[in-house]
Specification:
The protein is α+β, with helices and mostly antiparallel strands and 200 residues long. It is built from four helices and nine strands, in the order αββααβββββββα.
Length: 200
């Protein structure tokens, strides 16, 4: 089980400190989310129609964004400067690598290994921090023969990660035109949800 609270990177320090400042850090970490990410996925296909990577875009919630980027506007233009934003990105990605970037992929033969992320970048998207990166699959998945299943989640539920509520939440890059996807949103038990929200 992932134990992100033990991490020393700025990613988690910002989350913990920001939530403590906001007065929200009173409940157990596993009870309900303390931060939120909207994710967009582009399935990268090779010329043979095999899925070879997931191009992920993460949009952090406004509260985490505000705290994580505090003090980064050195030139006074109202936006975080490129250098500290790049340093934050490097720390985030280094920390997430240990947990396969909260990404799990499966083919017909079971779980597929996750490689080291590439093409990492970070920027502001309106008033939200955005991270983009590519997660390579260690085993290509021939989509003409089988189904690729993936999930992006924090098992501790410290961070709630959901697909962006938009028509392009999942797209394909390359491959045949008849590629399709089915998005299965989480469906927690209502009683469990009620219990989580009843906590301090």
């Amino acid at each position: 089980m992932i134990k992100p609270l033990r991490s020393r990177s700025r990613f988690w320090q910002c989350l913990l400190a920001g939530l403590a400042v906001g007065g929200l850090f009173a409940a157990p970490a596993g009870a309900h989310p303390h931060a939120w990410i909207d994710v967009r996925i582009q399935v990268e296909l090779n010329d043979d129609g095999d899925a070879v990577a997931l191009r992920e875009t993460w949009l952090f919630d406004e509260y985490y964004t505000a705290f994580a980027t505090e003090g980064m506007d050195g030139n006074g233009d109202g936006l975080p400067d490129a250098e500290p934003l790049a340093e934050l990105l490097a720390l985030n990605m280094e920390n997430l690598e240990e947990y396969d970037y909260f990404t799990r992929a499966e083919g017909k033969d079971g779980r597929i290994g996750i490689g080291t992320a590439t093409e990492m970048s970070s920027q502001m998207d309106g008033n939200r921090l955005r991270m983009d990166f590519v997660v390579p699959l260690e085993t290509p998945v021939p989509l003409g023969e089988q189904v690729l299943r993936y999930t992006v989640y924090d098992p501790t539920y410290y961070i709630e990660i959901l697909h962006l509520d938009a028509p392009d939440a999942v797209t394909f890059s390359g491959g045949p035109d008849n590629c399709r996807y089915a998005l299965n949103p989480p469906a927690p038990d209502p009683e469990t949800v009620s219990l989580a929200f009843a906590l301090d």
